[in-house]
Amino acid sequence: MRANPAATAKRHKLDNGRIRELTLAEEDALRAAIAKKYPTKVPEFDLGLHLMCRHSNIYGQHNAKRAPMAPLDWLDVNMDFRTVTFKRSKSGKAYRVPINDTALPAFKVLRERCEDPSNPVGPVVRKPSGIELQSSRRWFENSLAEAKIVDFCWHDLRHTAGSRLRESNVQMEDIRYLLGHGAKSITERYAHVSLDVLRKAIAMLDRIQTDTKTDTSTILKFRSA
Length: 225
What we know:
The protein is mainly alpha-helical. The chain has one domain: Intergrase catalytic core (hpI Integrase, Chain A). Helices cover about 35% and strands about 10% of the residues. It has nine helices and five strands, in the order αααβββααααααββ. It has helices at about 25-35, 40-50, 55-60, 105-110, 135-145, 155-165, 170-180, 185-190, 195-200; strands at about 75-80, 85, 95-100, 205-210, 220. Helix 1 (about 25-35) packs across helix 5 (about 135-145), helix 2 (about 40-50) crosses helix 4 and helix 7 (about 170-180) packs across helix 9 (about 195-200). It is globular and about 50 Å long. The N and C termini lie far apart (about 70 Å).
């Protein structure tokens, strides 16, 4: 049996890291598409982008091949203190994310869909009828198609948020905490990130409206540090 001449060849290591970010123009187009086709889904989009979390942190994990995970529950949302606790990150640990000025109204809309808005219980994401939801796939993919945005998926919202914070000069360790990656070094483990620092960081994702001198549409821009 002859030996395979390629067996000793050095294999080129592929970089499987995916980097795809939503530009501001694409975000505007996608928001317009969602508002047009699925207006009740706008709050879900705001949570996906402004909480910087994984799809499973909001909708739960229902794939039989993966460990099951419950969807985001109102017990983990503190509207008064403006924080969300995600019980499980990729490392398996819980972490907390502040609620910025864009995510807060989204939570308020979703709260009104509960049987008793004054005392919301159960999963956060629901239809206006109160039915619980387990995925964003159909409406999100259809909205991307409507906005003519290609090569983009829900998980890329995390890349988008992380990149925008870095462009706003937010420290890398703060971005890691907000993404649920935890501390990277022993030093960071002892130097616990202040919640006030994280609040200022996550606020950088808010886009504020400014008046225009013409009849054109409102201009959106990021808050300044």
